[in-house]
Amino acid sequence: MRDYYKVLGVEQDATVETIKRVYRKLAKEHHPDLHPGDKKAETRFKEVSEAYGVLGDPQAKEEYDRLRFGGHPTYGVKARPVNTEIFVSQTMEKLYEGGHEEIQGHLLRNIPKIREEIGVIRKVTKSKIGYDAFKPKIVEEHAREAFAGWIDEDMIVRRSKIIHVALFNLINQGAADRKREQEVDKLKRRLESAWEEGQVAGYRDALEMFYQRNK
């Protein structure tokens, strides 16, 4: 797992105020609005926002420190239940629902944005199949490109916090060996994918609700 202390350039014992101050400085420096089209700045912005989602939350930071550096002597890994995949699947379902709710809710609260996205989708669809129709696959393929333009730092920080809390809970339940970094990273990627798939579905479903009435 990425070393979030190095990402932000702070020490492990940095105060909450210091972590927040450093994060705000880095987020401002690398904000996509200041670097249009700069993929490196966009990536760096997402990295510092993800790091702050963990280190900026005391509970998530404590779990992260235990994972990276070990905890107090009484803290131990629980024995793995018969099938930890049950816990993983349940968590992924919740993350999918969370991603779906985030994007669908964001769009339903911003009707002008939905209309704007529908206009883009109509153009994309016509260019691909020659006529206007709601094609879920085309909408889903375009979703991540659309997200790049309007998912803000608060959404990235919130997503990071939710995913890491889920990850730490699953590790505590024995779904991954905290001593095996590749195993932890693989589980984290699965959780991230569930959230992202939910976001794509939320985008698709929000647009579908308004597509026909905006002809």
In a nutshell, what does this entry contain?
This protein is mostly helical. It is built from nine helices and no strands. The N and C termini lie far apart (47 Å).
What does this 3D model show about the protein?
This protein folds into two domains: 1-76, DnaJ domain (Helix Hairpins, Orthogonal Bundle), CATH 1.10.287.110; 77-215, no CATH class. It starts with a helix and ends with a helix. It has nine helices and no strands. It has helices at residues 4-8, 16-29, 39-55, 58-69, 85-108, 111-129, 136-150, 153-172, 181-211. With 215 residues, it is mostly helical.
Strand proportion: under 5%
Largest sheet: none
- Total helix count? 9
Q: Give average pLDDT, whole number.
A: 89
Task: Domain count, please report it.
Answer: 2
Low-pLDDT ranges:
72-78
Quick tags:
215 residues; mainly alpha; Helix Hairpins; 2 domains; 9 helices; 0% strand; globular
